[in-house]
């Protein structure tokens, strides 16, 4: 009724056929009375030619782009000079003999055929129109292919796909929950899962051995370029009777398969580099380093310990550190470059940032007059400095220097164009600390995942300083973006009780907050572990998009609003009464509503 072929299907071998096509009017061109229309559907474009003698020609006056039309006609070959090599259908065109309007479009708010830089709010309000654009359409199709490939690979590796609950209990850990009121149980709430963490571990306790799921997760947190507010999808994985290396092997194989098939960049084949957490923080100031960037920090505290440069010497004497970052071939840069980098460091928490430039056998810097020749030469050797290079210096408490360095290194890499955009660089971050000190209270708290198995098990919890205990926890990182966290789980009840005790929780808290899981562990739990790579982030990297919203069909905006469906929205008083809920607005909102 609507088509014999799609708009990306016809070829030169189809010349002479009578066909029927349906699609959207992508563009219209008038060449001296003859109208040329590019007709678009999901599969591609076909050029349709309409002769002025046709009885439906006059109807063209009221047609608008993005109207949906059906054409009948004959396939003809294009002349050699009019062949369009950019189209798969570029050797043919359709000479229209009949047409029917299927869905007339009003004036569209922004163009689809052209690169119309519409405001993001408008793009999100008319997302269905935005999705017609070739680039965004291709991104969503890439996402579909990646998910299909993930399912194929995981199934071939012996994993089984299971679904876990969407309505569950609120978790005291992690981000804010999205809460769902219960009609049948007044005053009580379900929560949308931040991740299927406890359920997938319970599946291992149930004896299923290898689980995966393309799982929706819900977190009430702020937006970032690599994180969508509201909901996201992850490849949730759990395995029984495994060690860390077993999980690495599966995920490295998966990433090599997916990025090899759908990535257009080079990458080193597995095994991927493994960097201990503390080493990553010392070298890069980040637990998600971008290994495309050759820059890193080195510790130069010893050189300044007894120097005449009192600002740095005092920092070292009080227990702080001095770290240096080499900037290659910057001697010819204007003073503004160095001033801008210092300002950037200050915007990220630094009191200042010193530098030394080595150029034509001399050193240029406001601080060299305070340094001996021995110290200057030592810094040059330690930084592997060549003529034309510079060292930037950060001095403060170690954690603050690492935080600032973690911002300066990528910024300096961008400024100096050191980051190769044509490669994927994967690495594992391993050996995360199990505990850390709360900076405000001084108490010992969990550093990352409280359910990770401590390295050394119960013995390490009983005999080591808590801050020296490492966890069997790991992250997989690509180009500075964390794709996933994972861990070998703490499946032994007494070890879990002890770990929570060190973090300030007694047994009753564990029994109350995590009763389902701890009770399951008491009835025979296998050693198990897992990981959950973010599907949205993987596709964002593969599509080479800077913002995660470009690979999600219907994303929220940065304020966690769906502008197209007008969510979140108010509900009726009847609905609230059924749920035994009374809305109490903040005072300012109440006043604004009353004045509206």
Fold and architecture overview:
With 596 residues, the protein is of the alpha+beta class. Helix content is 30%, strand content 24%. The chain has 18 helices and 24 strands. It has an 8-stranded mixed sheet, with helices on both faces. The chain has a 5-stranded mixed barrel with strand order 1-2-3-5-4. A hairpin with a 2-residue loop joins strand 1 (18-31) and strand 2. The chain starts with 17 loop residues before the first strand and ends with a helix.
Task: Put the structure in a nutshell.
By secondary structure, the chain is of the alpha+beta class. The protein is built from 18 helices and 24 strands.
Strand segment count? 24
Estimated radius of gyration: 30 Å
- Proportion of helical residues: 25-40%
Sequence stretches where pLDDT stays below 50 over 5 or more residues: none
* Mean pLDDT reading: 95
Secondary-structure class: alpha+beta
Give the strand line-up of the largest sheet: 6-9-10-24-23-22-19-12
Task: Tally the helices.
Answer: 18
Strand proportion, as a percent range, falls in: 15-25%
Shape: globular
The span between the termini is 52 Å
| Sheet with the most strands, sense and barrel status | 8 strands, mixed
